[in-house]
Task: structure prediction
Amino acid sequence: MIPFEKESLDSKSRRALIVHPDMVSLSQSALEHRLNEAVGLGLAIGLVATDSHYFSVRMPKPATLFGSGQVDQIRVMMTEQEASILIVDGSLSAIQQRNLEEKLDVKVIDRTGLILEIFGARAATAEGRLQVELAHLDYQAGRLVRSWTHLERQRGGFGFLGGPGETQIESDRRMIRDRMAKLRKDLNHLRKTRALHRDRRQRAPWPVIALVGYTNAGKSTLFNRMTGADVFAENLLFATLDPTMREFSLPGYDKAILSDTVGFVSDLPTQLVAAFRATLEEVSAADVVVHVRDISHEASDAQAHDVRQILADLGVSAETGEGPPIL
Result:
């Protein structure tokens, strides 16, 4: 168990128990970091953890991920702490999520769903909202079997050749695919517009500097201090979602452009990486990338490793020399 300071709660519906399935035998400090980060992710959408625990999961159960004894332990903790939400700091399949909800009779959300909830609450621009919706639909498409209650219904066909008609779940999946196709088309249009803006900036004699780093490392605070802007900067994970650019004075140049970007996090959902790729391209198109780190954080080295890994996935790597230099 990882102790932490308890906070007053507004209602029972905001009380959440956090559990981390340790499947790779992490060190004690790494486990504490993951649990503390999960507490912060919950706080970012107004959930307050009643407690946080990790469970050693050597053989993940296909039905529930956790063993039956561990599920019983979780049920007891949920009851004792009057928590109504279980946050699993890991990935759950649709079946695992549904089975845990049925066994525990509470709302269950995994790490991917939690991060998607945060992004959905924070998206402020039209592009940000489109990206979040695309990521959410991609995530939800594989969970229709869990979240929809009318799966056995069928829509009758017309005439004798129509057959029994498509099932409701097939219709729902088709509508999701159609919506995702439209979102990708809209985002592609915005991507081209963003590319034109980048080309215009590159023709100007002003360098572009992109701030990158782990979420809540202080990028927005540094951005505001250097540019005099008033970008939202709070001690919250993912306080910044939509990228912001401002000019500032730089010795030796008329001016320079500073870019504040969304923070990274370990195990960033693949749906978000794909949906936000157009936005993250601003990093690879910059003249210089400044990696902002919170050295006072106990997991600073691990966070830096996660940031470098995501940058490498985006084609920016100090080791291989790809992309702009990283400071």
